[in-house]
Amino acid sequence: MSTEAQIKANRANAQQSTGPKSEAGKTASSRNNFRHGFTGAFCVLGWESADEFNQLSRDLAEEHKPATPTETLLVTQMAQAWWLRTRALTLQNDCFTGSSVDEKQLALYLRYQTTNERAFHKALNEILRLRAEKRKAEIGFVSQQLKQSRARQQAAAEARKQELHKWKVLRAEAEVDHRVLLNLNLQTPEHPVSVGPERIIAAQKAA
Prior knowledge:
Blueprint: H1 4-15, H2 23-30, H3 50-64, H4 69-93, E1 96-97, E2 100-101, H5 103-186, H6 196-206
Antiparallel strand pairs: 1-2
Helix pairs in contact: 3-4, 4-5, 5-6
């Protein structure tokens, strides 16, 4: 069992740790166990081509043409996931040396391959889902505009119909008035002309 003096000595030694102090030293220390780069922040390894990764990113962006920040992030995820998936395939080849197979490492790389393939398709499906919802919203907006346009057209048609009906009634009344005037010119004390019912009947027929 450690004595009180030993415990104090251990604490004093811990305070004098010779670990890295600068940011560059800390970064280098954090990468001491960096082997395959499947975990942590994404980066292109030294034996990989940054130009090829950038070309992959450009090709995916050209294909999917992200229109929003969210779509841009999803395309970036697709590029990184596919790159890591390809890295896992490449590293699987190193598991075979002569007649032996490093089954532990092979299983690890197969798992990373599968994980990143799923991540790629998940990001792709999310883009497609967002675009489908956007199209549905646009279609709904256009459909609503068409309904409103049809309603306005129907209202205008009804207004024209009522206006035409009004003019038909006025025309019928004018024709009756014309006939009445003609009859009044022809009436005699022996043959008076009644105009009330005739005007009403003509107007009712026009309606």
